[in-house]
Amino acid sequence: MSSKSQNSNLVPPAPGFEPICHVCIRMFASRPEKFTHDPSSKHRECVLCARDFCERHASIKHMENKAEFERYPVCEINHETYWRNHNGIGSLTPFRTVEEYKENCESDTD
User: Fold this and answer.
1) In a 3-state reduction of DSSP, which class is residue 103?
2) Which domain of life does the protein's organism represent (predicted)?
3) Cis ω on the peptide bond leading into residue 19 (within 30° of 0)?
4) Per-residue pLDDT tens over the stretch 12-64
């Protein structure tokens, strides 16, 4: 069984709260005593890995340019490593960088 499927069952959703940040799920799985859940945190879907993340786990590098981040939200994980380790997940296109995402997605709309 993959670690993702094991970990995703460990955090019960808070009443009326969806989605749950994938980084928070991993943190809870490894150190539940240190986990704090902030239901007021704004969540987004990462354009690179298509998973939900909270404000605490946004990419600091990408947060520097607020307008760019609003258009292309990115979580803090290393997407190069993520896609190397999760090759062939369903029909998802593996984007490793925002530039790669823009190149592929914006050319589709031209």
Assistant:
1) helix
2) Eukaryota
3) yes
4) 555 555 668 889 888 888 888 877 777 778 889 999 988 899 988 999 888 88
